[in-house]
């Protein structure tokens, strides 16, 4: 067991997809896979820490998915008849700390984070101020540009002014992952994509021909630590982006990654605990695509890749410096379009 000086701390774990966020609708397969990967990895880490009691909100459709923890954690079942937000608030009140993992879309993550702050509970993720900036891709672009951090140019998408000339990316301003993200190369693509766009605000970006990757990091009051560099396998089919897999702890971490983490930490001191930085890598430069102020899918492979219990390190902060030196060092492939995880 990993020991941390805590007095029977009650921790609420709420992963939005598996925790009832879609309790009245069908859960998209990819989101279900990613959500369950993150939930199981987080529970594995937290369950090895002494003197804490875990409370987990769980959509009844996932009841059998974490059966290995039966009797060791308290499960709050969520079905289609319950109000997820009301249940969440009630559980927050009875806990000491909260680890929420939720999408930025429609201010979901911001609203949950703000509720935790207002109820005076320990937040095991980034502040609402940091979430407000990073949840909006246009605001993230403006903010990082102000701090002289290389980022993909972004501007508001205005349908009647859009010119389908050259490769461009259209995505929701507050979207999650590859959901509703399109690449338009020409008029033919535009004819296919336009009917699929909803009423919500989008942004448009130039398509950068490079390697999609991410940095898994820890943050604490303006300081940042790089855990690992990950490479994403993304395909584009019928103009839509789809994340198929993620290779966690890709070899070749260099000083540029660590320097970028330091600059992001300084620019966004509200980032706290685990967060991810999505980047595009080219032979000439590295540019930030977006910042995820929460657990990302890559988290699910870190324990097996590095041997680090990231949750334990998050709980050690803010008083202590996290230990990020790998105990082991190998790459792990996470298959998102499916439910298999395997090591290379």
TrEMBL record:
Entry-linked SUPFAM superfamilies: Glutathione synthetase ATP-binding domain-like
Keywords assigned by UniProt?
Answer: ATP-binding, Manganese, Nucleotide-binding
Q: Which domain of life is it from?
A: Bacteria
The cellular component terms of Gene Ontology attached to this UniProt record, alphabetical and capped at eight, are: cytoplasm
**Domain ATP-grasp: residue ranges:** 130-319
A Pfam family matched in the record = ATP-grasp_3
Endpoints of the signal sequence = none
| Keyword ATP-binding found | yes
What are the protein's GO molecular function terms?
ATP binding; ligase activity, forming carbon-nitrogen bonds; metal ion binding
Please give the name of this protein: ATP-grasp domain-containing protein
Give the originating organism.
Methylotuvimicrobium buryatense
């Amino acid at each position: 067991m990993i020991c941390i000086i805590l007095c029977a701390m009650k921790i609420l774990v709420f992963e939005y997809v598996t925790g009832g966020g879609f309790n009245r609708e069908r859960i998209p397969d990819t989101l279900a896979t990613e959500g369950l990967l993150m939930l199981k990895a987080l529970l594995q880490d937290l369950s090895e820490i002494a003197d804490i009691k875990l409370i987990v909100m769980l959509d009844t459709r996932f009841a059998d998915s974490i059966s290995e923890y039966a009797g060791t954690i308290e499960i709050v079942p969520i079905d289609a008849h319950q109000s997820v937000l009301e249940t969440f608030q009630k559980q927050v009140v009875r806990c000491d700390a909260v680890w929420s993992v939720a999408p930025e879309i429609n201010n979901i993550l911001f609203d949950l984070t703000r509720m935790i702050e207002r109820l005076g509970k320990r937040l095991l993720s980034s502040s609402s101020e940091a979430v407000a900036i990073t949840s909006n891709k246009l605001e993230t672009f403006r903010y990082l540009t102000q701090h002289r951090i290389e980022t993909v140019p972004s501007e508001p998408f205005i349908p009647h002014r859009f010119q389908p000339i050259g490769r461009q990316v259209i995505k929701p301003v507050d979207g999650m992952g590859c959901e509703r993200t399109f690449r338009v190369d020409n008029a033919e693509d535009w004819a296919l994509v336009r009917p699929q766009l909803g009423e919500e605000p989008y942004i448009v970006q130039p398509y950068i021909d490079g390697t999609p990757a991410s940095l898994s990091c820890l943050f604490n009051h303006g300081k940042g630590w790089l855990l690992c560099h990950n490479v994403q396998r993304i395909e584009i089919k019928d103009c839509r982006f789809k994340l198929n897999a993620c290779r966690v702890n890709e070899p070749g971490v260099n000083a540029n990654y660590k320097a970028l983490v330091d600059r992001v930490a300084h620019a966004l001191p509200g980032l706290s605990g685990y967060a991810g930085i999505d980047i595009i890598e080219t032979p000439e430069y590295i540019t930030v695509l977006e910042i995820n102020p929460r657990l990302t899918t890559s988290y699910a492979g870190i324990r097996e890749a590095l041997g680090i219990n990231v949750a334990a390190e998050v709980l050690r902060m803010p008083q202590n410096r996290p230990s990020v030196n790998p105990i082991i060092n190998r790459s792990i492939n996470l298959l998102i379009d499916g439910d298999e995880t395997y090591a290379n």
